[in-house]
Structure formats: C-alpha cells, structure tokens
Amino acid sequence: MKIQNLISKAHNREVLTRDELIFLLNFPPEAPESYQVMATANHISKELTNNRAEIHAQLALNMAPCPGDCAFCSFSGKNGVFSRETRLPPAEAISYAKGFEKAGANAIYLMTTATYPFELFLEISREIRDHLDPETILIANVGDQSLLGAQKLRAAGFTGVYHALRLREGVDSALSPEARKQSLRNFQEAGLQVGTCVEPIGPEHDAMELADLIAFTAAINPSYSGAARRIPIPGTEMAARGTISELRMAQIVAVTRLGMPRTVAGNCTHEPCTLGGIAGANLFWAEAGANPRDIREKTEEGRGESVASCRVLFRESGWETLEGPSRYFGR
Ligand code: SF4
C-alpha cells in the first residue's frame, strides 16, 4: 500500500477501505505521511463547504449521577463527581438557547442525562423552540429511543439528534451497543438527521478499532462524523489510562474524513483546537451548563468554549464560518 495512491484515491472522491484506514492510522501522528493526510482532509472539507465551518452549541438541561455509567463521563454514577440532580429551570434554558442563537450558533443542542423524564424534556424543548427563530435548528442529545420516542422528538421541533455508538460501548459503558444501533435506525426512520462521531478516543484504542468505528459511522450516512478524544475526569480509572495528544486526534479526524463519502460534509472534532481545524475538522462545539467532560457545574466557567472562541479557533486555522442555519443538518 502506498500513501500517494491513497491520497489520489481520496482526491478522486473514493472512500478508503477499512484496511486503508488502518494503514493511515498506524503512522505516527508526527510522520510526514500523517501531515499529507491532514492536508488532504483539510482540502476536501473546505471543498465540500466552500470554506465555511460550523459552530454548534450545546446546553445541558440537567446534571445528575447517571446509571448509564459510561466510565469516561463525569455524570457516571460510578465516577461520583455529581451526587445529586439539578435541573435547569425553563427560563434559564431559554435564556441560554437565545444567547447561543444571538452569538450565531448554526445549531443548538439540548442535552440530558439518560434518566431525565422524557415528557418533561419534550415540554421544555417545545417551550425553547417557541422562543427561537423558526429557522434555528434544534438538535436533541438524549438517551436511546424507541421509534415512538423518535417521532415525538420530531414533532417537538427537532431537526435531528446527536447519537453515537461509542468506542467499546457495553464494556466501558453500561449501555447496550445493540440498543444504540436500534436508536440510530429509529431516529432516521422518524425523519431525524443524525450527527455522530468516533469517540471518546484514548491511547488504548488501536487502528483496527478506530477504523471499524469510522466505517460504522460512514455506513449510517450521518450529517457529520468526526473524531473526539477522551478528556480525563480526575481520579477515575479512565484518567489513569491516559489521553491522546491533540496532534493524534487531528490525525484521526483527518483519516475519518477520508473514510466518509462526499455526501457527509461535516467533520467534527472535540474539544475545539486549531490542530483539528487544519486537519479538516469543520465543526466545533460551544457548551454551556453541565458537560460530561467537565467537573464544573457551569462548563462555560470551565472547559466549555463559547461560539465566539470557536470562531477565533477556526479563523486561526484558516477557516471562515457559516452564517445562518447548519447546512449539515439542512441536507
Ligand atoms: S454519557 Fe450519557 S448515558 Fe453515559 S453516563 Fe454520561 S450522561 Fe449517562
């Protein structure tokens, strides 16, 4: 296998195979070949978006110890970071959402932990929807859903969802990989668009695991795919496993681009960084309220980026940003 052949293949609009993705992922991130891959992914991402990157903004409606027990998440009951539930009052949620809209976010996400009452989520979502511009795109980031639940989300005014089959789902989480996959089918059957990602990546994930998940995300024809590294929650077993560098994450986000068809224009990375931007990431997230990667109750006072700071990171990486509703979710 030759790197130049794979680069040519990508430029010719062909999706790389699993074996080809593994070949690329096995280069050290600092190898010249990895920089070639990042340059190629950057070129494709810009070509697909006319050099307009997007910034999506997420707010959490609650913060609670969660029985999903994803070992990488600060809400996981086992990690013991948060001991009781707090819920965002509707007025505050509306204020956050309107703030994101005013700042120019291309889509607004509402997130909850897995046990937040679904009917309450729908009720608050409708209220938030009513206070936003009709053009503003609303995305749900909630637990697994039946087809009926997915249809209710659509009826409440959501354009799409963020949902992912995470790395080692069912091993590093208490959730069923099959339930995650069924939810993805339910969302799409209900007419919701799905944004997804290869996450949360740690040093223990080898090229084969990463390539398998890249290929899985490509197979569901998402609005965007991408790659995000695991952020260590202090004192947890996951933190002891270590953290990949931003450069390795940039390499993986670039390889992910080469594993997607051209119908998938979006390529996300998290947390936002210029290395991701130059490696072909064209979607960053701003965050407010609780955040599964943060131990602060208000992530905007901790790890969370704002729409404005994401815009600066994109500009520093050579990207312009889109004004108006997300094109990834507007397919
Ligand atoms: S990732 Fe979601 S399901 Fe898993 S512990 Fe965190 S909030 Fe719960």
Describe what you observe in this structure.
This protein has helices at 3-11, 18-25, 32-49, 90-103, 118-131, 147-155, 177-189, 207-219, 237-241, 246-258, 274-278, 307-316; strands at 52-60, 62-63, 86-87, 107-111, 138-141, 160-162, 193-195, 198-201, 224-229, 266-270, 283-288, 320-321. The mean pLDDT is 96. It starts with a helix and ends in a 10-residue tail after the last strand. The radius of gyration is 19 Å and the shape is globular. It is an alpha/beta fold. It has one domain (3-321): TIM Barrel (Alpha-Beta Barrel), CATH 3.20.20. Helix content is 40%, strand content 15%. Strands 1, 4, 5, 6, 7, 11 and 12 form a 7-stranded parallel β-sheet that branches. Helix 6 links the parallel strand 5 (138-141) and strand 6 (160-162). Bound molecules: iron/sulfur cluster. Iron/sulfur cluster (SF4) binds at residues 66, 68-70, 73, 75-76, 113-114, 173, 292.
